[in-house]
Amino acid sequence: MRGYRVGIVNPRTPFGERVRELLSEQHLPVIELKLFESALDGEASLTQFNDEVLVTQPIDADLLPQLDVLFFSGEDGDLMNRMAAEAADADVLTFVEGAAGLDARVLVPGIGDTNLTSERLVVVPRAASYLVGAVLERAKSSLGARRASATVLLPAGERGAKGAQELHQQVVSLLSFKAPPIEVFDEQLAFNANVARAGPKAASLAEAVGKEASALAGLESGVTVNLVQIPVFHGYAASLWVELDEPATKKTIASAFRKAPFAIDTARGGKSPSPVSVAESKRIHVGSIRASDEVSQPGFWLWAVADTTAYDPALAAVELAKAALR
Q: Cα–chain-centroid distance for residue 279?
């Protein structure tokens, strides 16, 4: 198998670190690796990759065409979108983690058509977008879903290992009657719940998740999303209202989610799935289905939970790259 020239933008983010880990495990053979920071005015620094010390440098558009594959991680922004589009135009297979402003396909292995014959620019959705989008893609294909709204509960681990660590530190501090650290989160998260990333970014992040989920599901009318940060370490949960073309019974709705990557939780003593009960599972667990048979607005409520083991954006990007480069 041939090796590839690979670049990672923002290699210190959770997505970037995970891509580096997968590359070190030879999920994709690499003959050259370049690391870039998104800040144009940043300074070069040293970082370790396997037994090799690499230079992380400010992103340079002139270097991008020298690559075979490029993985982008970071906040949505016009500059990063433009850089990603330029790399794709230079025939570099480019994967961007969670970018709502890009005119590109949103893809996940195993959902829909993932054949990359001509596209060079791909958006790999965030974990929250995957949870909502996967549910709605099944609801559309099996039940005729028209539109949807969702409230998604985000774990501390959504901010990476540092987020989970800070939640742990907050719990320990509060039980010791000390002020909790708030370096990762803007305010106390332990024993609390907040709008995810409060401030102007909250609306833009929720809008981005909605657009990614809508694109993944193939819903032209879009998906309305609200994001809530909750004090759990890992595992995503969502409460969804899905509007249908025609009424459907609870049994019919449940049957649509009996095949992978879903699991219907009906054998848990009547309990709904939770981040604790689905820990280490690679399925999206569905429960608490409540159908509405109102002719004016047929649809259903659904509760869906997935552990972080159910979806890995970095692994999805690497697997898509492997398939496209064969």
A: 18
- Sequence-separated contacts (24+) of 202-210 with Cβ below 8 Å: 202/227, 204/76, 204/100, 207/100, 208/76, 208/98, 208/99, 208/100, 208/126, 208/129, 209/126, 209/128, 209/129, 209/132, 209/152, 210/132
Q: Within 13 Å of residue 226, how many CA atoms lie on the same side as its CB? A: 10
Q: Are residues 297 and 245 in the same domain?
A: yes
| Secondary structure (DSSP) of 13-35 | SHHHHHHHHHHHTTSS-EEEEEE
Judge if 88 and 147 occupy the same domain.
Answer: no
Kindly report the CATH number assigned to the domain that includes residue 224: 3.30.360.10
**pTM of this prediction?**
0.89
Query: Does residue 124 contact residue 97 with C-beta atoms inside 8 Å?
Result: yes
- Assigned token pair, 283: 């399925």
CA distance 211 to 318: 22
Neighbours of 173 (CB within 10 A): 15
pLDDT score of 134: 96
pLDDT of 203 reads 58
Instruction: Please indicate, yes or no, whether residues 210 and 78 belong to a single structural domain of this protein.
Output: no
What are the Cα distances from residue 165, in Å, to 150, 160, 177? 27, 9, 18
d(CA 123, CA 80): 13
CA distance 316 to 326: 16
Tens digits of residue pLDDT in 47-91: 665 566 677 888 888 888 899 999 998 665 777 888 888 899 999
Question: Which residues span the domain enclosing 13?
Answer: 4-126+313-325
Q: Are both 98 and 156 inside the same structural domain?
A: no
Q: What angle do CA 84, 138, 230 make, to 5 degrees?
A: 70
- Count of the separate structural domains present in the chain: 2
Helix H or strand E segment including 216: helix 200-217
Residue 91 backbone zone (phi > 0: left; psi -120 to 50: alpha; other: beta): left
In the predicted model, residues of the chain with pLDDT beneath 70 are: 1, 39-53, 74-76, 100, 197-203, 266-270, 293-296
